[in-house]
Amino acid sequence: MFKSLFFHIGQYLLLLKQALARPEKPAMYWKEMMRQMNDIGIGSLIIICLISVFIGAVTAVQFSYQLQDSFIPAYYIGYIVRDTTIIEMAPMITCLVLAGKVGSNIAAEIGGMRQKEHIDAMEIMGVNTAAYLITPKVLAAIVVIPMLVCIAAFMSITGGLIASVAGGMITQAEYVLGLQSFFVPYNVFMMFVKAVVFAFILTSVAAYQGYYVKGGSIELGAASTQAVVYSNILILLSDYMIAMLLTQ
Amino acid sequence: MIIAENVFKSFGETKVLKGITTSFYAGKNNLIIGKSGAGKTVLLKLLVGLLAPTQGRILYGERDFTAMDEKAKRAIRMEVGMLFQGSALFDSMTVEENIRFPLDMFTNKTKKEKLDRVNYCLDRVEMEGVNDRYPSETSGGMQKRVGIARAIVLEPKYLFCDEPNSGLDPKTALLIDELIQSITYENNITTVINTHDMNSVMGIGDNIALLNEGQIAWQGNKDEVMDTDNSFLENFIFASPFLQRLRSDALANRRS
Ligand SMILES: Nc1ncnc2c1ncn2[C@@H]1O[C@H](COP(=O)(O)OP(=O)(O)OP(=O)(O)O)[C@@H](O)[C@H]1O
Ligand SMILES: [Mg+2]
């Protein structure tokens, strides 16, 4: 059990080292990165927006329920929605969803190429396949996912506004007052740190799962599932560690 | 020239290759023959470095390929073209993009120069005008030819073909053989071909190595095949009664 764990960690790190090479042809890497940015970014926009609106709305409703009959002023709802969203919900939920959507896609794409000998064919041409197949995806994710997280945060806060005003909990002015209260810019920094780290985890773990896939379609399916499971676990783990480190 | 020196390969307990020593020459069609499961594909993958030998070395000319790190291997691979048993065309790219891929990756040619080269290679394999088709829209024989075109696009010094004509009708198979042969002779390429097709053996076998039980059981050229008294080769080549009769007729004719 531990032996296999260490084997995978070692193999994963070696793969990353191999992926960190000078590109044979930067233009090809650039083209691939653009394609990935489009796939990850535009392709995930709608689902991320939809989920975020509801998360903001639910947060607002739940907190207003908890604040009922308490001495805490109602405009705190805006403040609470803003901070839970920025610190935790936007980066984490976005990346868990993307691990399912983008991660499984990357694992299946690279794994399929491995099984159909496309990776071997590229190796024979002299291509550093670890670099060409992985680096553009990771870089694309590191650029695009923080943007998505930003949009997710905005949508979530908007969702909170809609829910609390429509639900008659507070007025729009109160909500906005809450949003403007006790603002700590450092929290936004934390959000971006999380977004970048999670983006790196979900793409590189998925690529690793695909790159070393063996066998046939059952193994490919398993690799794609494992990509999601492992990156979810690692995202939650690193979320905890970042929280510990950055809130000292 | 490529030299295999005492090459062993095992997968766990299974010993596939048990001490292969042989040479593959420039400007010749070097054939590796042997029955299905003999280890032809494994040997080819060892030669190009997709697998590492358990023991022994592989030399490209003077250069010890086995001892090289990944980076140095990649430099050698720039001189290598390979046709895979299943063609291994990139299925989300068109035929043209497939052949152009090595050019895009490794050359600074202009768009026009690349297109000219792609079209030349397509022309060379008699496949002009299919640029915009996807591999799934072409037949198996066409895919093999596109695979050859992609393998030769960077003008390799070494060409590896894994069963280039398996699954093709005899006429197309012959055409592919002739194609590989003329490309080999024209450019003085060291070509290594895996096959169990007897027409290929008799047609283009300049240097034939018979693989049996993980060892080389016989080596020679196509002219020596007819006169062989090697029992492994006899068993392998003249497997069918039809071929046996043909051979005895030929030998009888020669005597009379
Ligand atoms: N990755 C691997 N792991 C374990 N065993 C393998 C592996 N690759 C090949 N083998 C074994 O090596 C032997 C030789 O296989 P190989 O594919 O080289 O045969 P071949 O001569 O190319 O056959 P064919 O003509 O059918 O293509 C087979 O018995 C196979 O089971
Ligand atoms: Mg084979």
Could you walk me through the main structural features you see in this protein, from its secondary elements to its overall organization?
- By secondary structure, chain A is mostly helical.
- Chain A has one domain.
- Chain A contains eight helices and no strands.
- In chain A, helix 1 packs across helix 5 (129-166) and helix 2 (26-67) packs antiparallel against helix 3.
- The mean pLDDT of chain A is 94.
- Chain B has 256 residues and is an alpha/beta fold.
- Chain B has one domain (2-221): 3-Layer(aba) Sandwich (Rossmann fold).
- In chain B, the strands form two sheets. In chain B, strands 6-7-8-3-9-10 form a six-stranded mixed sheet, sandwiched between helices. A four-stranded antiparallel sheet of chain B has the order 2-1-4-5, covered by helices on one side.
- The longest helix of chain B is centred in the last third of the chain and has 18 residues, at 170-187.
- Chain B starts with a strand and ends with a helix.
- The A-B interface holds A 18, 24-25, 27-28, 116-118, 120-121, 123-128, 132 and B 48, 50, 70, 74-75, 77-78, 80-82, 84, 86, 88, 90-91, 101-102, 104-106, 154, 160.
- Bound molecules: adenosine-5'-triphosphate and magnesium ion.
- Magnesium ion (MG) is lined by residues 40-41, 85, 162-163, 194 of chain B.
Q: Could you report the average pLDDT of chain A, rounded to the nearest whole number?
A: 94
Count every helix of chain B, treating DSSP H or I runs of 4 or more residues as helices.
Answer: 10
Biggest sheet features of chain A? none
Q: Gap between N and C termini of chain B, in Å?
A: 41 Å
CATH architecture of chain B: 3-Layer(aba) Sandwich
Q: Helix coverage percent of residues of chain A? A: over 70%
Number of alpha- plus pi-helical segments of chain A: 8
What series of H and E elements makes up the topology of chain A? HHHHHHHH
Give unreliable regions of chain B as ranges: none
For the record, the count of structural domains of chain B works out to: 1
Q: Radius of gyration of chain B in whole Å, from Cα?
A: 19 Å
CATH class designation of chain B: Alpha Beta
CA radius of gyration of chain A is 21 Å
What small molecules are bound in this structure?
Answer: adenosine-5'-triphosphate, magnesium ion
Helix content of chain B: 40-55%
Percent strand of chain B = 15-25%
Number of domains of chain A: 1
Number of strands of chain A: 0
Structural class of chain B: alpha/beta
Please provide the ordered H/E string of secondary-structure elements of chain B.
Answer: EEEHEEHEHHHEHEHEEHHH
